[in-house]
Write a structure and sequence with these properties.
Order of helices and strands of chain A: EHEHEEE
Number of helices of chain A: 2
Oligomer: heterodimer
Largest sheet of chain A: 5 strands, mixed
Number of strands of chain B: 9
Strand content of chain B: 35-45%
Largest sheet of chain B: 5 strands, antiparallel
Shape of chain A: globular
Helix content of chain B: 25-40%
Radius of gyration of chain B: 16 Å
Strand content of chain A: 25-35%
Strand order of the largest sheet of chain A: 2-1-5-3-4
Order of helices and strands of chain B: EHEEEHEEEHEE
Largest interface: A-B, 20 and 29 residues
Protein backbone atom coordinates (compact mmCIF):
# COMPACT_ATOMS: atom_id res chain seq x y z
CA UNK A 1 0.00 0.00 0.00
CA UNK A 2 1.10 3.54 -0.63
CA UNK A 3 0.88 5.98 2.26
CA UNK A 4 1.32 9.71 2.34
CA UNK A 5 3.50 11.14 5.09
CA UNK A 6 3.45 14.74 6.31
CA UNK A 7 6.81 16.27 7.21
CA UNK A 8 7.48 19.13 9.62
CA UNK A 9 10.45 21.07 10.94
CA UNK A 10 13.80 19.59 10.03
CA UNK A 11 12.20 16.55 8.38
CA UNK A 12 10.62 18.90 5.85
CA UNK A 13 14.14 20.03 4.92
CA UNK A 14 15.39 16.43 4.79
CA UNK A 15 12.66 15.19 2.43
CA UNK A 16 12.58 18.54 0.60
CA UNK A 17 8.83 18.90 0.79
CA UNK A 18 5.76 19.16 3.01
CA UNK A 19 4.76 15.57 2.26
CA UNK A 20 5.91 12.48 0.40
CA UNK A 21 4.73 8.97 -0.37
CA UNK A 22 6.17 5.61 0.61
CA UNK A 23 5.23 2.05 -0.28
CA UNK A 24 4.55 -0.30 2.63
CA UNK A 25 3.41 -3.88 2.81
CA UNK A 26 -0.08 -4.45 4.19
CA UNK A 27 0.03 -4.75 7.96
CA UNK A 28 3.27 -2.80 8.28
CA UNK A 29 3.89 -1.27 11.69
CA UNK A 30 5.23 2.14 12.64
CA UNK A 31 8.64 0.59 13.36
CA UNK A 32 8.75 -0.83 9.81
CA UNK A 33 7.98 2.64 8.49
CA UNK A 34 10.75 4.14 10.60
CA UNK A 35 13.32 1.60 9.38
CA UNK A 36 12.34 2.38 5.82
CA UNK A 37 12.65 6.11 6.47
CA UNK A 38 16.08 5.71 8.07
CA UNK A 39 17.25 3.80 4.98
CA UNK A 40 15.83 6.32 2.52
CA UNK A 41 16.87 9.37 4.55
CA UNK A 42 19.93 8.56 6.71
CA UNK A 43 19.88 12.12 8.09
CA UNK A 44 16.75 11.21 10.08
CA UNK A 45 18.85 8.78 12.12
CA UNK A 46 20.97 11.67 13.39
CA UNK A 47 18.00 13.43 15.00
CA UNK A 48 17.54 13.57 18.76
CA UNK A 49 14.25 11.75 18.28
CA UNK A 50 11.73 10.95 15.59
CA UNK A 51 8.17 10.31 16.69
CA UNK A 52 5.32 9.31 14.41
CA UNK A 53 1.82 10.72 14.75
CA UNK A 54 -1.22 8.92 13.37
CA UNK A 55 -4.41 10.94 13.07
CA UNK A 56 -2.94 13.67 15.30
CA UNK A 57 -1.81 11.35 18.12
CA UNK A 58 1.65 10.09 19.03
CA UNK A 59 1.79 6.33 18.49
CA UNK A 60 4.02 3.50 19.68
CA UNK A 61 6.29 1.65 17.28
CA UNK A 62 4.11 -1.47 17.32
CA UNK A 63 1.00 0.18 15.94
CA UNK A 64 -0.10 -1.29 12.60
CA UNK A 65 -0.84 1.15 9.80
CA UNK A 66 -4.01 0.76 7.72
CA UNK A 67 -3.03 3.12 4.94
CA UNK A 68 -5.88 5.59 5.22
CA UNK A 69 -4.63 7.52 8.26
CA UNK A 70 -3.00 10.91 8.43
CA UNK A 71 0.62 10.04 9.19
CA UNK A 72 3.11 12.70 10.25
CA UNK A 73 6.79 12.86 11.17
CA UNK A 74 7.42 14.65 14.46
CA UNK A 75 11.10 15.56 14.90
CA UNK A 76 12.14 17.07 18.27
CA UNK A 77 9.64 19.80 19.07
CA UNK A 78 10.85 23.24 20.17
CA UNK A 79 7.91 25.49 20.87
CA UNK A 80 7.81 28.10 23.59
CA UNK B 1 -8.54 29.44 25.65
CA UNK B 2 -6.16 28.16 22.99
CA UNK B 3 -4.81 30.11 20.07
CA UNK B 4 -2.02 29.56 17.56
CA UNK B 5 -1.62 32.64 15.44
CA UNK B 6 0.65 34.50 13.06
CA UNK B 7 -0.31 37.79 14.67
CA UNK B 8 1.51 39.43 17.62
CA UNK B 9 0.39 38.31 21.09
CA UNK B 10 -0.86 40.91 23.58
CA UNK B 11 -0.08 39.67 27.13
CA UNK B 12 -2.42 42.22 28.77
CA UNK B 13 -5.40 41.10 26.69
CA UNK B 14 -4.61 37.43 27.32
CA UNK B 15 -4.11 37.94 31.07
CA UNK B 16 -7.38 39.82 31.44
CA UNK B 17 -9.29 36.75 30.19
CA UNK B 18 -8.25 34.61 33.21
CA UNK B 19 -9.21 37.03 35.96
CA UNK B 20 -11.94 35.75 38.28
CA UNK B 21 -13.50 37.04 41.48
CA UNK B 22 -12.73 33.67 43.04
CA UNK B 23 -9.06 33.82 42.07
CA UNK B 24 -6.50 35.31 44.42
CA UNK B 25 -3.66 34.61 42.04
CA UNK B 26 -2.92 35.07 38.35
CA UNK B 27 0.35 33.71 37.05
CA UNK B 28 1.59 34.55 33.55
CA UNK B 29 4.49 33.07 31.64
CA UNK B 30 5.73 35.00 28.61
CA UNK B 31 8.30 33.40 26.33
CA UNK B 32 10.28 35.87 24.23
CA UNK B 33 12.89 35.75 21.48
CA UNK B 34 16.40 35.99 22.94
CA UNK B 35 19.16 37.90 21.12
CA UNK B 36 21.87 35.25 21.43
CA UNK B 37 22.23 31.47 21.51
CA UNK B 38 25.61 29.96 22.40
CA UNK B 39 27.25 33.35 21.81
CA UNK B 40 25.76 33.61 18.32
CA UNK B 41 23.60 36.58 17.42
CA UNK B 42 20.04 35.62 16.50
CA UNK B 43 18.51 37.48 13.54
CA UNK B 44 15.06 35.91 13.86
CA UNK B 45 13.19 32.77 14.86
CA UNK B 46 10.88 30.97 12.44
CA UNK B 47 8.09 28.95 14.08
CA UNK B 48 5.93 26.39 12.33
CA UNK B 49 3.29 23.98 13.58
CA UNK B 50 1.22 20.92 12.81
CA UNK B 51 -1.88 22.86 13.69
CA UNK B 52 -4.60 20.29 14.41
CA UNK B 53 -2.30 18.13 16.49
CA UNK B 54 -0.82 21.12 18.31
CA UNK B 55 -4.29 22.25 19.38
CA UNK B 56 -5.05 18.71 20.57
CA UNK B 57 -1.84 18.49 22.59
CA UNK B 58 -2.46 21.90 24.19
CA UNK B 59 -5.99 20.74 25.07
CA UNK B 60 -4.42 17.76 26.87
CA UNK B 61 -2.12 20.08 28.83
CA UNK B 62 -5.05 22.22 29.95
CA UNK B 63 -7.09 19.15 30.94
CA UNK B 64 -4.20 17.79 32.99
CA UNK B 65 -3.62 21.17 34.66
CA UNK B 66 -7.28 21.27 35.66
CA UNK B 67 -7.07 17.75 37.09
CA UNK B 68 -3.90 18.40 39.07
CA UNK B 69 -4.58 21.86 40.50
CA UNK B 70 -7.71 23.80 41.50
CA UNK B 71 -7.29 26.39 38.78
CA UNK B 72 -10.06 28.65 37.50
CA UNK B 73 -8.82 29.49 34.00
CA UNK B 74 -5.91 28.43 31.82
CA UNK B 75 -5.13 30.19 28.56
CA UNK B 76 -2.33 29.26 26.17
CA UNK B 77 -1.53 31.33 23.08
CA UNK B 78 1.41 30.59 20.79
CA UNK B 79 2.68 32.63 17.90
CA UNK B 80 4.06 31.14 14.68
CA UNK B 81 5.82 32.61 11.65
CA UNK B 82 8.92 34.82 11.73
CA UNK B 83 9.68 36.60 15.01
CA UNK B 84 12.45 39.07 15.72
CA UNK B 85 14.39 39.62 18.95
CA UNK B 86 12.20 40.73 21.87
CA UNK B 87 8.95 39.55 20.33
CA UNK B 88 6.61 37.28 22.28
CA UNK B 89 6.40 33.64 21.18
CA UNK B 90 4.12 32.23 23.87
CA UNK B 91 1.84 33.45 26.66
CA UNK B 92 0.42 31.15 29.33
CA UNK B 93 -1.95 32.63 31.93
CA UNK B 94 -3.39 30.74 34.89
CA UNK B 95 -5.73 31.88 37.65
CA UNK B 96 -6.33 30.01 40.90
CA UNK B 97 -7.46 30.67 44.47
CA UNK B 98 -3.86 30.81 45.79
CA UNK B 99 -0.46 31.55 44.31
CA UNK B 100 1.19 28.18 44.84
CA UNK B 101 -0.99 26.26 42.40
CA UNK B 102 -0.91 29.09 39.87
CA UNK B 103 2.91 28.95 39.79
CA UNK B 104 2.92 25.14 39.64
CA UNK B 105 0.29 24.95 36.91
CA UNK B 106 2.02 27.57 34.78
CA UNK B 107 5.39 25.83 35.09
CA UNK B 108 3.86 22.46 34.22
CA UNK B 109 2.11 23.96 31.19
CA UNK B 110 5.21 25.55 29.64
CA UNK B 111 7.47 22.57 30.45
CA UNK B 112 5.00 20.12 28.89
CA UNK B 113 4.34 22.35 25.88
CA UNK B 114 8.06 22.28 25.13
CA UNK B 115 8.05 18.47 25.23
CA UNK B 116 4.84 17.47 23.49
CA UNK B 117 3.28 20.19 21.34
CA UNK B 118 4.23 19.93 17.66
CA UNK B 119 5.66 23.39 17.17
CA UNK B 120 9.17 23.84 15.81
CA UNK B 121 11.51 26.79 15.72
CA UNK B 122 14.45 27.49 13.50
CA UNK B 123 17.07 29.94 14.72
CA UNK B 124 18.35 32.13 11.93
CA UNK B 125 21.81 33.56 12.63
CA UNK B 126 23.84 36.06 10.66
CA UNK B 127 25.81 33.18 9.13
CA UNK B 128 23.43 30.23 9.05
CA UNK B 129 20.37 28.59 10.56
CA UNK B 130 19.50 25.68 12.81
CA UNK B 131 16.36 23.79 13.90
CA UNK B 132 16.34 24.02 17.70
CA UNK B 133 16.86 20.72 19.58
CA UNK B 134 16.92 18.66 16.37
CA UNK B 135 20.39 17.20 16.94
CA UNK B 136 22.29 16.01 20.03
Amino acid sequence: MEVEILAFGITRDIVEGDSFKVSLEEGASVSVLKELLYKAYPKMKQLNSLRIAVDNEYVDEGVVLQGNEEIALIPPVSGG
Amino acid sequence: MIKITEYPLNPDDITSTVFSDEAGAVNVFIGTVRATTKHKRVVRLEFETYLNMAIKEIEKIIETVKQKWPVHHVVIHHRIGALTVGEIAVVIAVSSPHRKEAFAACQYAIDTLKETVPIWKKEVFEDGEEWVSAHP
